Structure formats: C-alpha cells, structure tokens
Amino acid sequence: MGTGKKAVVLLSGGLDSCVTLSLALQDYQVAIMHANYGQRTEDRELEAFNTIADFYNITTDHRLVIDQRHLAEIGGSALTRSDIPVPEADLDSDEIPSTYVPFRNANLLSAAAAWAEELGAAAIFIGAVEEDSSGYPDCRRAFYDAFETAIDVGTRSETKIKIITPIINLSKAKIITKGFELKSPLHLTWSCYLNADTPCARCDSCALRERAFREANAHDPILAS
Amino acid sequence: MGTGKKAVVLLSGGLDSCVTLSLALQDYQVAIMHANYGQRTEDRELEAFNTIADFYNITTDHRLVIDQRHLAEIGGSALTRSDIPVPEADLDSDEIPSTYVPFRNANLLSAAAAWAEELGAAAIFIGAVEEDSSGYPDCRRAFYDAFETAIDVGTRSETKIKIITPIINLSKAKIITKGFELKSPLHLTWSCYLNADTPCARCDSCALRERAFREANAHDPILAS
Question: What is the pLDDT of residues B129-186, one digit of tens each?
C-alpha cells in the first residue's frame, strides 16, 4: 500500500481509472470513490468498482459511493437520458458528443476534495485522458490546474491537495500496455455506455477500447478469446 | 422576472440566500437550486426554500433539489454528524468552527454550473458573506474567482458563466436592511443549525442573526413580536 501518504482515487470501473488506481497504489495509501450519476450502465460500473476494489483488498471503509443523480436530472446527455440515443461511434469528429455530461468531472472532484480534506489526503487521482476523451472540456489538464487552485483557495490553509492525472497524455493503447505491465485487473473493467451484459461494440467507448487493444497488440480480457 | 438573461440561484432558505434571490430577480430570469446534504435541519430548510419559491411564483420546473448527502457521509462537521455537538455561539473566535463542511460550496457550485450550462444561463448567484461567514474558506471572493476560472476552462467554449456574490462584502445588518428595501420574504427564511420548530437562539447562526437584526434596528419577523 505504499507509504503513509494518502490519496483519493476516482474509480469509475473503466480501463482508465483502473490503471490510474494501479499507478496510485505504487506511492499512496488509497481511498476510492465512485459516483452513480444516473448513467445507463450504473449497476454494471458499480460492480466493476467493487470487484476491482476486492482485487486490491481495499477495505470497505476506504470505499465511498456517492449519489450524483442530479447530473441525470439536469440532463443534456445521452449517457443519462433515455430519450437521447447513445450515438454510434464517430472517432474522427471534433464536436463535443451527445454523451457529454455538463461539468461532470468538477462534480466528482468537488466530492473527492471534500473527502480528501477530511482524510488529510495529499492527492486526488483521476484517470482523465486528453487525447481520447472525445473532446470533453473537463478532461484537459488546464481544467485540473484551475480546479487545483480552487481547492487550494477554498479549503483550510493547511490543506494541500494535488490533482494527479497520471495518464492524461497517454494514448489508450499506451494505457493498456501500462496496465498489463502493472498487472492491473483489466479483466474486471467495464467501458460500454449502453449495455450491462456484453459490450455493444458500437458506442464511442466500445470503439475506443477496441481500437486501443488492437493498437496495443493485445486481446481484451473481457471478450471471449 | 427581468430580461431574458438566465441565472441559477443557490437558495438554502436562509436570510442571505433569500436576499440574494431578491437581488438576482432584478436582472435575471431565475432557476433556483437547493441541496440536501444531511444537515440536521434539512427538512426545515427545504420548507423555507419552497415557501420562498412560492412567494416569488417560481415554477416547479425552475426548482431543483439535489442530493449531496455524501457531504454528511464524509462527515467532519457538527452540522451533519449527530456525535459532534453544535457548539454554542462564539462570534469572536478566529478558528474555523466545527460546523464547517469541507468544500461544501464547491460541491454546490459544481452542480449549479452543470445546470447553468444546460440552461444556457449566464450567471450563478450565491449568497456567501465573507465577514460573517465564521471563517469558512469557501466563502471568500478569491475562491469564487478561482472557481469561475475552473468553470470557464471546464465547460464548452461558448459557455460563459459568472459567479455573482452580491452580498459578499455586506454585514448581516446591511443584508437585512437591503432585504427590507427589496421586500424580500425574510419572514419565510430559516437560519438555525439545530432546531426545526423554534430557533435555538444559541448556535452561531442564531447568534449572528439576532445580532444583525439588533444592529439593523429591526424586528426579526420569524420571532414572536
């Protein structure tokens, strides 16, 4: 579990956050946070969160599942609204896709920062990826720098919390390679936006995952071999 | 309802947010947000929110009540934990009091910003007060400046949302005077941290309110005359 330094790690249950957790565990004692925000595959993601946590023997008092369903009520995203279809993948588009949940990562980080301050943690890890993030504005390092400043100004003077984005400049293929190096439990991760049993293979998230495993010359362990 | 410009107003149901709403209504079409975060007087505050909203004929589709109970789970505050007593008022202390909820306003602002982006709103109003805020670090304008930058960087490029803190430099007595000028429904507000029927008259929030009405030479309309 590393040294005594503590960190809060945001763990959605997808590939990126799983590898981010493996990286955090090299240097920190971790507490992990997961958000339900009314996404279609909420239960499947929570299952991934818990099985990954079990894999790493993270005790239940170091797991926090928070309710952010207001993000679904506020709407605006195909991820949370049943009346907006999840689009078929279009990896070449520069547009912000309809799966964008407004300011989602800020909502997650605010909760993580509150917990981090309470725990005396020195860092928050988030597995944001700038290149492969489909253009979501809250996946860019500039946003995390701005948010880190807001945390610094808005918490007790003795509280110093870094936001660490260890994979933000990696391609998804490199993240997968890194995951295999670290023996990260990629077989327990879930990425699909649409289904909860077998990946749909058609949404942006499935398409990115499939392309990345191909580029990494690796077999995706969640698929039949 | 002012012009066509929209704003999201955070409305706890206390004095400060009530006067802030009255100020916002001078220039904006408003949508109001309230958070339940496991505070002891949650139901009473929600009642104040709804009666103030009724007073101003704000339709239910412009009201949003969000769940931020993770702030209570995270704990650390006498406002949300039954095992930490709400302290008796000490208005001369420079310490951050035990009623501090870590990074609470950032959690509220993140949700407000998500809604504001979805509504195309130009502003978020929050009734933070620097002087009377008992030293909470997330009540200072420097924090709102930092958070405004984070919103700017973390949302769509066309989204521009100002955080307006119209009473941040006012004393509570001046806020009350302003409220009477604007015919703000101060009689519907609730401030006490402890009780839900009659104000305890002993917590920080009651003490600040009592002192402020005295300084404003006014009778508090929620008290028997």
Answer: 987 656 678 889 999 999 999 999 999 999 999 999 999 999 999 999 999 999 999 9
In a domain, A225, yes or no: no
Q: Chain A partners of B77 at a C-beta cutoff of 8 Å? A: none
What pLDDT digit, counting tens, does each position of A45-62 carry? 999 999 999 999 999 999
Domain span at B134 = 6-215
Residue type at A121?
A
Asked whether residue B221 is domain-assigned, the answer is: no
CATH assignment at residue A38:
3.40.50.620
What distance in Å separates residue B173's CA from the closest CA in chain A? 25
Cβ partners under 8 Å of residue A214, min gap 6: none
Instruction: Note whether residue A111 is domain-resident.
Output: yes
- Give CA–CA dist A108/B74, Å, rounded: 14
Q: Phi, psi (5° rounding) for residue B163?
A: -100, 115
Cβ neighbours for B120, distance < 8 A, ≥ 6 positions apart:
B6
A220 within some domain: no
Sheet bearing B162-164, strands edge to edge? B63-67, B29-36, B6-10, B123-125, B162-164
Which H helix or E strand runs over A145? helix A141-154
Distance from the Cα of A168 to chain B's closest Cα (Å) equals: 15
Is B74 close to A115, i.e. CB distance below 8 A?
Answer: yes
Contact A103, A74 (CB under 8 A): no
Backbone φ/ψ region at A128: left (φ over 0), alpha (ψ -120 to 50), beta:
beta
Q: What is the ipTM of this complex?
A: 0.87
pTM, entire model: 0.89
Q: How many domains does chain B have?
A: 1
Over the stretch B65-117, which tens digit does the pLDDT of each residue have? 999 888 888 865 555 656 666 666 666 666 655 566 789 999 999 999 999 99
